[in-house]
Amino acid sequence: QGVLVPGLGTFAVVRKQIDSVEEMYVVRRPVFQLDMDVSCLRELMFPMVMIPGDIEITPLDYWWLSQTTSLPPDVVRNCVQETILLYSFQLRDRRNLTFAFGDIGVLSCQDNFLCMRFHHTCVAGLESWYPWVALLLT
């Protein structure tokens, strides 16, 4: 399953098969597929992540966020949109700010490379059988 954050990108959990000499592992790991305005990304490098077509992608649930924050859905939507817009302006102006996503990870730009780094607790929390393999892949 994945979540589309309009103007920023898609977060998803994908399965990856790893063959080792001794055995085969299938692990779940988080990925982030960037989907920002290209004018903000000029001269920036970022990893090309492709989310498989069989993964269900749902839009960010502003209503659910409004219930957890006690703010009206339109206020939550506007806050998210304005925050993404502000971050894209910061990227365009070559300011190396980080964009933290709670318990998920950090989107950061260093030396013209934009990268989503997932917290180890997020990765390990998704994969209960082989968390160390998922951590190595992420």
From TrEMBL:
**What InterPro entries does the entry give?**
CCD81 (IPR026295), CCDC81_HU_dom_2 (IPR040673)
Which cellular components does GO assign to this protein?
microtubule organizing center
Q: Which Pfam families does the entry link to?
A: HU-CCDC81_euk_2
> Which residues does the UniProt record annotate as the domain CCDC81 HU?
56-127
Q: Which domain of life is it from?
A: Eukaryota
Q: What is this protein called?
A: CCD81 protein
